[in-house]
Design a protein that fits this description.
Distance between the termini: 31 Å
Order of helices and strands: EEHHEHEHEHEHEHEEHHHHEHEEH
Oligomer: single chain
Strand content: 5-15%
Largest sheet: 7 strands, mixed
Helix content: 25-40%
Strand order of the largest sheet: 3-9-8-7-6-4-5
Amino acid sequence: MTDYRSRFHVPGPGPYALTHSAGCLPRSAAAALHTHYLEPWQQRGGDAWGTWLGAVDEFRGALAAMFGGAASQWCPQVNLSSGLAKLLGALPAPDPARAVWLLHEDSFPSMGFVLQQAQRQGHQLHILPRTQDPGLPATWEQALTPDVSGVLLSHVHSNTGRVAPVEWVAQQCRERGVLCVVDVAQSAGILPWNVETLGADAVLGSCIKWLCGGPGAGFLWLRPELCAQLQPVDVGWFSHADPFEFDIHHFEPAADARRFWGGTPDIAPFVIAAQSLRELQGIGVHAILAHNRDLISIFRAALPARWQASVRTDGHGGTLCMAAGGDADLIAPRLAADSVRFDRRGDTLRLSFHLCNDAADAARLAHAFQPD
C-alpha cells in the first residue's frame, strides 16, 4: 500500500477520520500560498491583481483537468449555498404549473434552506422523505411528475454515504426538459466522475472535504448552452466581461461562467485549493478510491462479526456512515478516548479514510467496536 500520509499535515495524536468534514492540509500548500498570494502582495500591493487572478485561473484549470469541461465553464464560488442561490436567481420566473424542485431529505440542510427561500420567487419545494432510497432510480422516476421544473441531486448523501444514480436521473431530466443540478461536495476527489458523463446542467461543489483544499474554495460548473441563456442578478465587477472597465453605466456579463462570480473575490482559498487539486490530480482519483477501499477492507476485517455487515461500499461513497443505534453512546466515547477525529449524526457514526490514513489507522478504529 502506497504511503501518502507524509504529503499532509495530519492532526494528532490519533487517527484522522474526518475528511468528510474537512480534508487535511497538503504540506505543499503553504509554499503555494506564499508564492502566489502573500509574496505578490508584499512586493506589489495593489499591483498584485494580475498574479492573483492568474492563480484563480489556475484553480479553474485544475478543476477542468480533474473533472472535465473547459476552464471557462467553471466559476469560483465561496460555497455551494451561494452558488445555488446565484443559479436560482438567474432562472426565468417559474410557470406556476411547473415550478416544483425535488430534493431528498438526506441532502445537506444548507441546500434545502436555499430552496426554501427560493419559494419567494415562485419556486415550490418537494422534499422526498428519507424512507425512499435516493440510490434507487425508482425513487426519482416516481417523483419526476409533470409539475417538476428542477432537481437538486446530492451525488453522495452525507448522512448515509448513499450514492445517487446521477447519470440516470440527468438523462430522465433531459428527456422531460427538467433542470438537473448536482451537489458533488461528498464525491469530488473520492469518486471518479466528470461533467461529461454526469450529464447534469450544473454542478456545485467545494474543495474543503475530499479535495483537501480548505473552506472558501467552492465552484459552479454550467453547461455552456445553459450558461449563455442565464442572466444572474447577484453580480459584481468580476461578473463583467472586462472587470477593469470601470464604467458604471455599462455592464456586459462575462461570456463564460465568470458571469456568476460577483464582487471582489477572495484569493487565498483558491490558491490553496489549486495546489491541493494539483496534488490529487497527480495521484489520480482512481488511486485515491482504491486506497480508501483497501483501508475499509482492513477496518472491516478487524471488526467483530456483528459489525462487519454494516460496513458497505457498494453504492456508497468514501465515508462509512455506521448506524450504531444504542451502541453509539458506547463506541463514540471509546473513539474519542483514543484521540480519533470523527463525528456523529444522531446514532450514526461517520468515519472516513483518505490519503492521510494508513493500515494502522484502520485497525485502530476497529478496536473501539470490540466488545468489553
